[in-house]
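Continued from yesterday's entry.
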Amino acid sequence: MSIKRVTEAELAWVNRQYEQIGFMPSKLQNEIIAIVMSQGHYAGVGRLVMLNAHEAEMGGIYILDAFRGQFLAQELVSYLVEESKRQNLKTVYCIPFEELQHFYEKFGFHAFDAPASNANPRILEKYHWCLKTYDKNVLLLKLTHDG
């Protein structure tokens, strides 16, 4: 297992995966995109979308069916959390499907009262879009780095 940052050459592959599962496409200009490799094959993808100098959204975590059960999503999320620290981000938001809440809590993400918070307006907008768009319920979680 290894994880690598996506280059322009790999972006088309990333976006084909996202298109197949109904996720928004990626672009390198404001995103840190990572591919997890297993035995030399592309096995999954995830991203940090920069909202500003201090905030990002972690999302697009997707492991191809043939590679599930190898804990690759855990490795990918761990990598992106560490990358968010390297980028000196203060807050990382995540909008996972409800059944993934405990998975993300293992990395320090927690639910919060979005209406009463000062959450980034772009995240609130996307959260409401996800609630309307997906058949499954989604949650709004955040991870806060002290410092």
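--- second protein ---
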Amino acid sequence: MDGIGDGIGGKPEAGAAEGRARRFRLWHRDIAQAAHAIGKPEFPLCLETALRQLVSFQMMNGFAYSHDGVASDLCSERVVGTRAMIVDRYLAGSYVLDPFFDALHRFSADTLLVMRRIAPDRFAETEYFRQHYGATGIVDEIGFILKLRHVDAILSLSRMGAERPFSARDVRTLEDAAPLIRFLAERHWADHRKPGAARTVAAASLSNPALTRRENEIVSLILKGHSSLSIAAVLDLSPNTVKVHRRQIYAKLRISSQAELFHLFLG
């Protein structure tokens, strides 16, 4: 978004100012339309249109999470790409490895979630990352936490393909707009509920009866993308103790890679 309008009307600075003023007017027009669309099917598209006046992105989607650990589709009608990759596989259980899902329990509702800030240190090396981000081409993601009557939810904006990650300026812009975005979204989706029948794998499924409680905790952190050092810090263990546990886990489960671990728990 930076530099739109540069060179128009003489000096680049003047052109940039005109571009910002135009986007400011369009933002107010479009966000007003979104407000009028609350409770109507067109609300998600109206909100998406308004947000595009602030920052560029390729996809807006959302998921809701009940307090007993069941995920449901909040807003994925316009998902780009293969639905099975982005939505069905996610709802089938892999959402328990999503840093945004973890963030619901770690951050206050007014926090704007930026994936690269909150993801574990080895997140990009995980099987979840390969299957979800690698396969769909998502390069960066920002999320708004929504507190609804029956569930919590996250509405996210993604950049994909050859696009650059969100800049610091993009993040500041969305942080400034976040209170209004949350206000409108929480009213539109206020009565969203989890599916009547449990269609998904509950968070508690990240466990195996062959492992001890501590070993299951370590498995969960490994699958989420934590290194041995990070696991040690989270569980207040020494890095060497974590490595010993890891070897024991792999031996008990008769596996030798994280990909096998992923498929054993979520395959």
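The two ends are 40 Å apart (CA to CA). The first strand starts at residue 59 and ends at 65. Will compare against the first tomorrow.
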